[in-house]
Design a protein that fits this description.
heterodimer; A: 306 residues; mainly alpha; globular; B: 115 residues; Methane Monooxygenase Hydroxylase, Chain G, domain 1; 3 helices; 0% strand; flat; quinone (chain B); NDAH_ubi_oxred_su3_sf (chain B); membrane (chain B)
Chain lengths: 306, 115
């Protein structure tokens, strides 16, 4: 009971503080490139306050329910992702036997929710962003599944806590060297961040959120940031040994590893050029998907040999 | 208990996402129709939003479904993998090889190309 309440509190704290951490880290990472102006620590807060007080935009005949629901649903999906992250062997909100599958379903449903955001504005540019996202989503989801199955093989289980326990001798990031890089590509796709920002890109004047302003825009950006945090926490669990580590208590290790993955993703987001949408699908299916097969076979042979 | 916590977290996040939008907007008037034209980079809306847009991911979707069917087989496979040993590797290797031929065929047919 106390463990459940503690884990509930943990998820809530990450939900509230996560977006702020993402915004600050993003600004810190961007500072050398000069891409972002404004105060590092207060900038995110003043932007959030400005969005809250701004007038909300409307189009001629939007699908109102879907338009308001899609940011909330995206946030809820990210929260489900956070719920399956084990902070320690016992401090975990939802320790299902199939929690790896649950995370997989979060990734799959994200495509639906992001399409909904672009579709409900009833305007051309958001709809094109949504179409593009579906193509991207259909491409990255398989890579993610194969990489995650590779992680489940040595654990002989689809439970995140078992996946972490199986890494006691050696972390998966070393044991399956292809896994984490491929999974990071999935993370950039899932949050359409940086090089894989095809849905909300500037060449579509903001894509799926081109017509969104004010509080709804804030909700959408919050949800994206929380999804990035949830993804980083899952990556830390799957590849960096989760709570395992000397001296410090488990939850602190999970936090540190999550922050490291998050910083890496944000850095990649600023350093890599954006992939052209028409090349992205071929790249995913013809190059990255076969690489994920290699990762799976590698993981399988190693699991038998060990 | 596990599922109860999950449902609580799900509804908390969903509620928060809706409240953030509803609370500040509840007294705001909806902009008049003259202001509600879609943003088209300054252009006028001559066509419907559902105008033809040539994205041909239908064959790609079929390919995805083939792999998704394999995933259903793969989840239980991952759990008993070490127990079954080399046989499991061979089985999945054959399955993946057959599906990979599908990828090569789709690639040749230009399924992944947008034009």
């Amino acid at each position: 009971m106390i463990e459940s309440l503690a884990s509930l509190l943990m998820v809530t704290v990450v939900l509230v503080l996560g977006p702020y951490v993402v915004a600050v880290l993003d600004r810190l990472v961007a500072t050398p490139t000069g891409a972002m102006a404004g105060d590092v620590w207060l900038g995110p807060l003043s932007r959030a306050a400005w969005l809250l007080t701004q007038q909300a935009n409307a189009t001629e005949a939007p699908d109102w329910q879907a338009w308001r629901l899609s940011p909330a649903l995206y946030l809820a999906l990210a929260a489900v992702g956070l719920a399956v992250v084990p902070w320690s062997p016992t401090l975990i909100a939802t320790d299902l036997v199939t929690s790896v599958v649950l995370w997989g379903s979060v990734e799959a449903l994200a495509t639906v929710v992001i399409f909904l955001q672009g579709w409900s504005a009833n305007a051309v540019l958001p709809l094109i962003g949504a179409y593009r996202y579906v193509a991207l989503g259909l491409s990255y989801i398989l890579i993610s599944m194969f990489v995650l199955i590779g992680v489940a093989l040595p654990a002989e289980s689809l439970q995140w806590t078992q996946v972490v326990t199986a890494q006691e001798s050696l972390w998966n990031v070393i044991r399956q060297p292809l896994g984490l890089p491929l999974f990071l590509v999935v993370g950039l796709g899932l949050t359409f961040w940086g090089p894989l920002n095809l849905a909300d890109s500037t060449d579509l004047a903001g894509g799926t959120s081109a017509e969104v302003s004010g509080p709804s825009r804030l909700a959408w950006e919050l949800a994206r940031a929380v999804m990035l945090v949830a993804f980083s926490a899952i990556a830390a669990t799957a590849f960096l040994g989760g709570w395992l580590g000397p001296w410090l208590p488990g939850p602190v290790w999970v936090l540190l590893k999550t922050l490291a993955v998050l910083a890496l993703l944000l850095w990649l987001g600023h350093r890599l050029p954006r992939v052209a949408p028409e090349r992205c699908v071929t790249l995913m299916w013809v190059v990255l998907l076969p690489l994920s097969f290699v990762d799976l076979i590698w993981a399988g042979v190693l699991a038998l040999w060990a | 208990m596990e599922l109860l916590t999950l449902v609580i977290i799900l509804s908390l996040a969903l509620g928060a996402g809706l409240l953030i939008q509803w609370l500040p907007q509840r007294h705001q008037p909806i902009p008049p129709y003259s202001q509600r034209a879609p943003f088209l980079g300054g252009g006028t809306p001559d066509t419907h939003a559902w105008n033809r847009y040539h994205i041909r991911y239908y064959p790609m979707t079929l390919l995805l479904i083939a792999f998704e069917m394999e995933m259903m087989f793969m989840y239980p496979w991952a759990v008993v993998f070490v127990e079954k040993g080399m046989m499991a590797v061979m089985e999945m290797g054959m399955f993946l090889a057959i599906l990979s031929v599908g990828i090569v065929y789709a690639w040749r047919e230009g399924v992944f190309r947008w034009q």
